[in-house]
# Entry
Amino acid sequence: MAKRRSRARHGLGSVFKRKDGRWVAQVCAGYSADTGKPKYRTAYSRTEQDAKTNLKQMINELDSGQPAPTSRQTVGEFLDKWLDECVKGQKEPKTIVYYTMMVNRHIKPSLGRIELRKLQAYEVQSLINEKTKPQPTGKEGKTRKLSPATVNGIRRVLRAALNQAWKWDMVVQNVVPKTSAPKVVKPEPVYLEPDQAQKLLEQAKGHPIENLVALAMGTGLRIGEATGLRWQDVDVENATLRVQVQLQRIEKKLVHKPLKSASSRRNLPLLGMALEAVRAEEFRQASLKAKLGEKYANPLGLVFLNSEGRPLDPKYVDKHLKQLCKDAGIPQVSFHKLRHTAATHMVAAGVPLALVKDQLGHSSITLTTGTYAHMVPAAQREAAEKLDAVLRKDVKA
# Structure
């Protein structure tokens, strides 16, 4: 029989150590209406202090009138229910795919069989710690290590699910906040130097994504915003474009989706090579229409199409972009790095961060500052040199 080590308030609960070394906090949560026997809330911990903390929390919850969880549903069963009732049909398609992948690939294999109401923080921590180690790929002898961002994503999804379980009174508490995750070190953005950008533009001449690349570097649009740009959103005469929608693949079909936030919806000036790119695409699309004849169709009214008159898939764009970079003898970058290229050179040229934020459609100036702060000193130095030159000129005059 387990040895009792300490007692809490008389008649309410106790803390004791099991033979397997675990500490148990147990409190009477009422009596069965059928048998009259007491019903207990129980929480397991690795240390006596944690057990006492759990006991105190359970007592406070009982005093506040919170019902005791009685379901014997497993973590896996609950996660399936959570995905069906709180994620599918409620979240964006990409979010649904992400949550489902995190649950089925990472969380359920490790925690799925544990009874939901008995899930402990140390078990979640063990999952997190295990995911920081090299993971098997399915190929003999080969492994890969998950990034800290991915591990944090696993923790974040489980936390969201257990928060719902707590709201439904299926658990006494959400144990995930008691765990820690690996620190995510944000890398400095990768971008092309002006001479590298010029080489890429030269290499892309005549390619189906030539004008898309030019527009991206001239505006800093996201890939979905650029590939989803519609002719109705472009005003060539007044040199402006409206960023209203994005192109996403939903159930194997490219469709327009609303942008996530109000800050993402914006009006931008269409100047220089960006304006030239749209005009060139207008001419290219007219030639494509003449070439394809009745086969030509553009039901979404897109500005950019591939050589067969279909929407540009993000995978197609990135694949050909990296090949163009390779052929140009410059670092191979993704489409998102073209966005970084535009933003980095705007900051370096002295454009105020508030204006860069609006150009990129960031939700906050903090995001802009955190991403491009490394370029601010250079811009400040250039501004100081320009100020000095103006003042010296005035003095000489």
